[in-house]
Each structure stands twice: as structure tokens, then as C-alpha cells.
Amino acid sequence: MITRRLITAGLIAALPLAGIVANQAVAQDMRDITFVQPSPSAINSFPVFVAIGEGYFAEEGLNVTVEAINGSGAVLQALSAGQAHFGRPGPGPVIAARSRDVDAVFIYNVAARSNFGIVVREDSEIQSPAELKGKVIGTGTADGAEVGFARNVMAGQGMIAGEDFEFLTVGDGGPATVAFNSGEMDAYSSSTADAAILNQRGMAVRDITPPEFARFFGNGIATMGDTIRNEPELVEKFIRAFAKGHAFALDDANREAVLAHLKDGNPQEGEDAEFQSALFDAVRSKTIPVDMSKGLGYLPAEVWEEWQASLVAGGEIAAPLDDLSAAFTNEFSAKANEALN
Fold first, then answer.
1. d(C-alpha 238, C-alpha 33), whole Å
2. Which of 22, 95, 127, 185 could disulfide-link to 57, CB 3.0 to 4.6 Å?
3. pTM for the full model?
4. Average pLDDT, stretch 223-238?
């Protein structure tokens, strides 16, 4: 069973066999780069592992090591503490961090379509979020992107956490199954991968998220503002290699190679080849932009506004940011797309 590493940003630990590098024979002039992700899943960060396996980072002179920590909050702590160069947090946590003067910046939209949903047991009588008044919604982490997403959905129903419903941090995988079976939670705010794992392990769930929330993109690539200002070429190199990995994985002709790279990144996920393949399909589908005219990784400003409004309505931040546009940039994804074309 795949479990999240419950560690602080100051104690980052590498994934088993996933702290792999962009080139096994690393040249002395290669730049060591640390990438942090909010769970151990290689599939959820598939462009990184494909870019490593295909040598795209090595071509840019980057020796990338992947580390797994627990949730978007920990990812942002690692970035702000200088313990990592790039990470994969959610947009809600990035906005919340910026409200606390943490200069984190989103630079690539990975989950271009919402990769979260509120699910209930298949046999539950609950049919919509409106029926969760007075209920408990479980989450994998206390401050991850899934929490912000659930706040969003519930705010759309006129409900606020702590007043109309409760959040309960239960973890993912096995612990989430236990929480459903024990009745500790009535619903679960899950990623596409989390829901697939629950179903695969015999805990049948169904998504009750209203369709209009599909526009709320999920986790993406972030770095610190200082990195962008002081080392723009590093950011450009990382995102160019990442986008190449993303594009390579979207081509079904490369499927066998992609799944092999993901198994290298997390051997446990590759133990069941059929499940690995199905989970990859589910996660990959969320990374395909609704409008491909702007290329891969594009961040729509209007959805950032909606994310911020939902955080204010849910009480997660006290007021809108002075400059929301500083929270994201499309500069590097645009350059990466030019390189792809």
C-alpha cells in the first residue's frame, strides 16, 4: 500500500527508488535540483518522471531528484525554506501562502481540469454536496489542495467549514477506507488518484461534485519569486524539460515507455500493471487543457480570480491579495510550448 510520508519540510525524505536523477552518469557540471511533490505517487507527477527517464532534464544540464512530503503546505514550506527548487502544490495553498507574504509563484498548470472531487460511498444516500450539512468531510492532509477544493464546493452551497460541516484529516488509501467503514466521515475530498485507489481496493465510491467545478484547475508547478528573478534561465530549463515530458506522455505511441518510467519512480504503483495503466489514464486526462490553443501549462487568470473568491468566502484568507497576478505567470509555459512546436 502506498502511504504518504508524514514528515516536516525540514526533514524531507526521498521516495524509495524515486529519488532518481536525470542521468545515472551525472557529469560534474550538472546542476542538482530538488523537486518536491505532495504525495509519493509517481503517476500524479508523471511529466517529471518521464522527463527524467527520457533524459530531457539531463539535456538541460539538470540533475533532478524527486522527494515526497505530505501535502501542498509542506511543499510550500520546503520551497520557502530553500530546501527545494520546484514543487507541485495546489493553487489554493499558493494563494493562502501569499496572503502570509510567502512569495510562491505558480509557473505551469499540470492538472488543467480539476483533479479533485467530493466522493461518497457508492451505497450512500447522499446525492449532492447540499446534503452534507452537519456532516464530516475527510481529507488526505490538513492543508492540501483537496481541502481548498472542498471549501470551494461547499461555499457554492452556502456552507462554511466549522459552522455547517466539519473537515477531518484521515489520510489516504487504507486510512480513508477505515474512516468510511467506521463512519468517521460521510464524504471524502479526493484526488482522481485517491478515488481510483479506493475503488480498486474494494471501497466503491462515487463523485457528487457539481460539474461546474471542473474548471477549478488543480496542482501545478511552483517556485519562489526569488528564483524567477535571479535565475530565470533555470526556471526556463526546468519547465522546458517538464513540458517535453508532459507532451511525450500524452502520445499513446509512447505508453509502454511512460509506464516503465513511472514504475521506476514508484515500484509499488507498478506492481499491478493493469491498475497502474488505468490510474495513469485517469490522471493524464485531467492534464489535457480544455483549450489547447494556448498550449500545455497555461494558467487562466479568470479561474485564479474564482479560486481567490472562494478562499475569501470560506474564510481561508481574510481578504483578496493586493496583486493576485503576482501569484502566477504564463511566461515559462509559453516559452516551453514554443520549443515543442
1. 9
2. 22
3. 0.80
4. 98
